[in-house]
Amino acid sequence: MRQITRALVWGRSFDRAQAFAERMSGSSPIQIEAVEQGEVAAAQADIICTVTAADTPILFGDWVRPGTHVNIVGSSYVGPCEIDTDLVVRSRYFADNRASVEAAGAEYIGARDSGLITNIHILGECGDVIIGRVDGRISTHDITVYKSLGHIIQDLAALKYLVDR
């Protein structure tokens, strides 16, 4: 597990990103700060989470350094793409559910339909990595991407956590 000590927040509206960072800083043990450019945040990140309603990529492969892990959770149907094709192609790519990503993972479908990858580019599902059936990272330089379209078990686990608190 990586020790997280700092979080950078970027949004299409810097004012809203800054307000979010300030609001979250009061309840978090880690340093949270807003940055004005996504490229600046990505260049410094070990872990990147995209949680947007963007129609076009907001994260580009040439911004992401080797060894970074990326969670793509904002787009959940064919059309909107949060990351560019280059990042899909360069990554070790994992899904919450393979069939769902093959059918509705816009970033993945774009790269596949362009002939840049095939269906074997999805190396496994998150559960495969957790139980050790598939290696998530085989080199410290690997860029890993996890595409989540939403899985009811994730929502239920989060709800249970909140109820137990």
Write a concise keyword list for the protein shown above.
about 160 residues, Rossmann fold, two-stranded parallel sheet, 7 strands, about 35% helix, globular
Give the SSE layout:
Layout: E1 6-9, H1 14-25, E2 31-34, H2 38-44, E3 47-50, E4 69-72, H3 85-90, E5 92-95, H4 98-104, H5 106-113, E6 122-125, H6 126-130, E7 144-147, H7 152-164
Protein name: Ornithine cyclodeaminase
GO cellular component, one term: cytoplasm
Pfam families: OCD_Mu_crystall
Plain-language structure description:
The protein has 165 residues and is an alpha/beta fold. It has two domains: 1-36, no CATH class; 46-164, Rossmann fold, CATH 3.40.50. It is built from seven helices and seven strands. It has helices spanning 14-25, 38-44, 85-90, 98-104, 106-113, 126-130, 152-164, and strands at 6-9, 31-34, 47-50, 69-72, 92-95, 122-125, 144-147. The strands form two sheets. It has a five-stranded parallel beta sheet with strand order 3-4-7-5-6. Strands 1-2 form a two-stranded parallel sheet. Helix 1 (14-25) links the parallel strand 1 (6-9) and strand 2 (31-34). The longest helix is centred in the last third of the chain and has 13 residues, at 152-164. The protein is globular, with a radius of gyration of 16 Å. The chain starts with 5 loop residues before the first strand and ends with a helix.
